[in-house]
Amino acid sequence: MRLTATALLLAATGLLGGAAPAQQEATWLDQLGRVEEPRSEVPFAEYRRFPGGEEPQLLIGTGLYTKTFLAIKIYAFGFYVEPEGAAQALARWQGASERERRKDKGFYHDLWAGDFAKSVRWILCRNVDGDDVAEAFDDVLGPRLKRLAKTSSRAEAAAAERAMGAFRAYFDAELRKGMEATFTWHPGGRLVTQIDGEVVGSLESDNLCRALFACYLDDDPLDDDAKECFSGCVDRVSRAAATEAAQRPAQPASPPGTR
User: DSSP states of 154-210 as a string?
Assistant: First the structure.
């Protein structure tokens, strides 16, 4: 039976009585579409997979990176998280208001440091020379890597510097308007980068991953408005996590006497 939009809404709010069947909840995820970043009007898929991982990720907010006092649009971005891992990391914020989360550094720390896959997806708003991108990464990642090095082992700090050199080298050609670049931080400190549909590298450095994603979540983010909008993601992430869990096939019971 095909469910109407009204029936789906009623089921989602619990007005049909009892828990909604798994198929109804699955439809909510399946019907997610695209969201536009308002200032650039660039659309972003709400639910998609990224290279290097099996689990789809959920869009929790969009933003726009601009340059100079003229606010020249460089790229629009979407920030994604793996729902089940993110829901666990953010569970303590479930009862807090959006305003409380927005004002508390602990919320952004949990979103940043939580051991779950997360991605930033760029869509270029103009042509940008590859050297300019590499230099921009020096400017934003360099100071953050230095701060992280103060609380890291020498080996980790050295590994991050090597990884940074390899990361810069990805940007050896012009990035054209409309081109996509994605950066996915997988658990364990693995950074997978995809440019224009091609995976250009996978680097192992927890510090580089932390520095890159801190650009969007720390006290000096690339887009303040985007960072603030992330504070409204908790209920949405929890619903997506519950939906994914309901879709997962039940594990068969172990025979008596076995573990």
Answer: HHHHHHHHHHHHHHHHT--SPBPTT-EEEEEEETTTEEEEEETTEEEEEEE-HHHHH
